[in-house]
Specification:
By secondary structure, the protein is an all-alpha fold. About 55% of the residues lie in helices and about 0% in strands.
Length: about 280
């Protein structure tokens, strides 16, 4: 009597597919044939994992992921190295959302040191108020108020006075500010320009990014919120959540069947916005 056919679970299917990809690379390597196309597919999978680095199992393979994506490591690999790679990564494939679209991001490194020359503000390209204000903010990331806004730390009265002094006195007048930015709070302007530090954003959402009870779709959704806020500094217009990439895995009500979880996530977004409202 034949044994019944045992079909793999959903998360096992993703691992089996990854196995097939890696075996293709290994066979091509043994045969001395090109496996460039397979490597392209491998890097796509690994790039997807890199965007989910807050998951503990994925983070454990951070060095391998870094080597694959940003070094020439693959060029030096033989069959044994590819097999080790397969064994280490196959179990992580289940975390990649099905049909998920990956978005390239570019987060600049922290500024270690800088020199400021006042004469630079007088160049022809910095004659108008907006250019001077935005140039100053980008070049003064060591300013205490700007650092706080970048790090999601609430401002105090002294911080606000410092921003008012710079933006309403040193660089121009309050009237010039309002001509360019209307009634936009000073903190919101700064946050929009400098964005939010990735570590600060992840810390704000850590209760959900590190929550093993969330499924892959929910983790993907929260990660997209984090990346959006890191780039834009805030998320005041929640209508963006009705567009890609947020809807790649379904709508909010489809992803969060327990709307209480979504309500808590929204409260974190609101707090991040409020910390910039100076």
């Amino acid at each position: 009597e034949l044994s019944p056919l045992i079909l793999p679970e959903d998360d096992e299917i993703s691992a089996v597919r990854f196995d097939a990809l890696m075996y293709g690379i290994e066979l091509a390597c043994l045969a001395g044939k090109s496996y460039k196309r397979f490597v392209g597919d491998l890097k796509k999978n690994v790039k997807s994992l890199a965007s989910l680095a807050n998951i503990a199992e994925i983070n454990e393979q951070a060095n391998l992921i870094e080597d694959i994506l940003h070094t020439d490591y693959i060029k030096s690999c033989g069959v044994n190295e590819f097999e080790i790679m397969r064994e280490k990564l196959r179990g992580l494939m289940k975390y990649i959302p099905r049909g998920g679209i990956q978005y390239d991001t570019n987060f600049t490194d922290d500024i270690i040191s800088m020199e400021w020359n006042e004469s630079e503000l007088e160049s022809d390209s910095l004659k108008n108020y907006r250019a001077k204000a935005e140039y100053y903010i980008r070049e003064h990331m060591d300013n205490e108020a700007i650092k706080k806004l970048k790090s999601n730390i609430p401002l105090n009265k002294e911080d606000i006075k410092e921003l008012e002094k710079v933006l309403w006195s040193e660089l121009g007048t309050k009237e010039e500010y309002e001509q360019e930015y209307g009634q936009k709070p000073l903190g919101e302007l700064v946050r929009e320009i400098v964005g939010l530090d990735m570590n600060a954003a992840k810390e704000a959402f850590s209760a959900y990014l590190e929550n093993s009870n969330l499924d892959s779709r929910q983790i993907y959704f929260v990660n997209q919120i984090v990346e959006y806020i890191v780039r834009n500094g805030m998320m005041k217009d929640l209508s963006v959540l009705q567009e890609a990439p947020f809807t790649d895995q379904g709508s909010i009500v489809e992803i969060f069947t327990d709307l209480g979880v979504w309500a808590n996530i929204k409260s974190i977004i609101d707090r991040i916005n409020e910390n910039a409202a100076a």
